[in-house]
Amino acid sequence: MAKKVGAMDAAVQELLDRKAIGDVVARYARTLDWLDDDGQASCYWPDAELDYGFYKGPAAEFLPVVMATERASDRRWHMLGGLIVKFASADAAMSECYGIFAGATRQDDGSLAGHLYGGRYLDEWQKRAGEWRISKRLYILDWRQRLEDQPEFAPDPALPLPTLKIDASGHPLYRPM
Fold first, then answer.
1. Whether pTM exceeds 0.70
2. What is the pLDDT, as a whole number, of residue 3?
């Protein structure tokens, strides 16, 4: 009976670890969209090696670059999904997930336009002092699509849905989680 309890404990721990990694993936997308520098920094170990094509190097040096890029966009939206995790040990894992990102900036004619990007994240993870973070990342861009005439920051009378203008950290609707 003790062997079954040990196996059950290991299975429960793997589920908890898988959930913790999934939470980091969700936090990565969310903190980019809300311009949360500290939240974004908590997704990577500072010594994590990152390769986004336009940037290759440690996470500690990437964070100011990516946050400046996000702040230069008038609207940004990230969605990651289809996460698959494989554990190498109790404190090491690898994962793959798909990501869709849309960004829009003010154009010369005053409209908002940008691109929709699709790609995948190939990550390695380390658990240090009980916390999972990305230790290595390769981002692969699979496709992009031009986005014309995006919604403004005030509701359109023809489709009166609320919109947000998030142009700085600390938006009043942002809820730390």
1. yes
2. 59
Q: Work out the pLDDT band at 2, boundaries 50, 70, 90.
A: low
Q: How far apart are the C-alpha atoms of 147 and 141, rounded to whole Å?
A: 17
Residue 8: pLDDT band by 50, 70, 90 thresholds? confident
Q: State the pLDDT at residue 94.
A: 98
Domains of the chain: 2-150 (3.10.450.50)
Q: Which residues of 91-128 are buried (b: 16+ CB within 10 A; e: fewer)?
A: eebebebebebbbbeeeeeeebbbeebebbbebbbbbe
User: Is 172 exposed, middle or buried (CB count within 10 Å of its CB: 0-12, 13-18, 19+)?
Assistant: exposed
First and final CA of the chain: distance in angstroms?
A: 39
Question: What pLDDT does 100 receive?
Answer: 98
Residue that is written with structure tokens 């998030």 in the block = 166
| DSSP states along 149-162 | EE--SS-BTTB---
**Pick from 121, 120, 109, 122: which is nearest to 150 by CA?**
109
